[in-house]
TrEMBL record:
The protein's role, per its UniProt record: Assembles around the rod to form the L-ring and probably protects the motor/basal body from shearing forces during rotation.
Quaternary structure and partners: The basal body constitutes a major portion of the flagellar organelle and consists of four rings (L,P,S, and M) mounted on a central rod.
Lineage of producing organism: Bacteria, Deltaproteobacteria, environmental samples
InterPro entries reported for this sequence: Flag_Lring
Membrane topology: Lipid-anchor
UniProt keyword Membrane, yes or no: yes
PANTHER family: FLAGELLAR L-RING PROTEIN
Protein name: Flagellar L-ring protein
Top-level taxon of origin: Bacteria
Presence of keyword Lipoprotein: yes
Alphabetic keyword roster: Bacterial flagellum, Cell outer membrane, Cell projection, Cilium, Flagellum, Lipoprotein, Membrane, Signal
Protein family per UniProt: Belongs to the FlgH family.
Length: 248
């Protein structure tokens, strides 16, 4: 005689749900992905008109085909030229506020007579020392004191120094030149980006074809990074979500 034993196992959904919950929690505590995602272009490409091609004149010592002349220098002056931007930015700010306020008020309201009859002190009745004495009885007495002492202080200091090239993308009718440049440096899994844009004057460019960032108008300097170090400076997405919805 043969006996067949059939065993049927039923898996409870609770352990699986618990594992998923723990996985989501640990994923929220961790930082974002370490792999740097592709970033859009740092600056929008500026289309500029190429100068018309010039041909050398064999009967002349000078030609428009050459960008340098006998008494000319190497400073950028036309669209497409490169200028060296020396970024030297230093800013310090300090603010201090001290506030002190005090106020004290006192109010007393009494009734000496009501409906033509003098009032008797209600606090001294029933055989007290002033029982039956006629006089004013205080009906309302208030007092308040307000004292405020507040002190606030903020201090900020920034320092950025770098050197990078920028290209002239536009020359305004008054001679002001618009420049923009971008630089990307990638070391291991960390990528750093630096973008500079602004307006410069041709006379402010030094003889070595460089200009200080402090001489630029409407300048914008962006310096940021993306990668492992940048991700470690941010909390996980679940932690940030709890900070938003947590009421306490």
């Amino acid at each position: 005689m043969k006996y067949l034993l059939h065993t049927h196992w039923t898996r409870s959904p609770l352990p699986l749900a618990g594992i998923l919950a723990v996985g989501i929690f640990l994923g929220g505590c961790n930082g974002a992905s370490r792999q740097a995602s592709p970033m859009p272009p740092m600056v929008a490409p500026q289309a500029y008109t190429e100068p018309e091609e010039s041909y050398a004149n064999p009967g002349s010592l000078f030609s428009e085909a050459k960008s340098h002349y006998l008494f000319d220098d190497n400073r950028a002056r036309k669209v497409g030229d490169i200028v060296l931007v020396k970024i030297v930015e230093t800013s310090k700010s300090k603010s201090k506020v001290d506030t002190k306020s005090e106020r004290e008020t006192s109010n007393n309201l009494s009734v000496s007579a009501a409906f033509g009859a003098s009032t008797v002190s209600p606090f001294f009745v029933g055989g007290g020392p002033l029982s039956g004495k006629v006089g004013a009885s205080p009906m309302l007495s208030t007092s308040s004191t307000s004292d405020l002492n507040a002190t606030g202080e903020t201090k900020r200091e920034n320092y950025v120094t770098a050197t990078m090239g920028a290209r002239i993308v536009q020359v305004l009718p008054n001679g002001i030149m618009q420049v923009q440049g971008a630089r990307e440096i990638k070391v291991n899994d960390e990528t750093q980006y630096m973008v500079v844009t602004g307006l410069i004057r041709q006379r402010d460019i030094d003889t070595d074809n460089s200009i200080l960032s402090t001489q630029m108008a409407d300048s914008r300097i962006d310096y940021y990074g993306k990668g492992v170090l940048a991700d470690k400076q941010k909390s996980g997405w679940l932690t940030r979500l709890l900070d938003i919805v947590w009421p306490f």
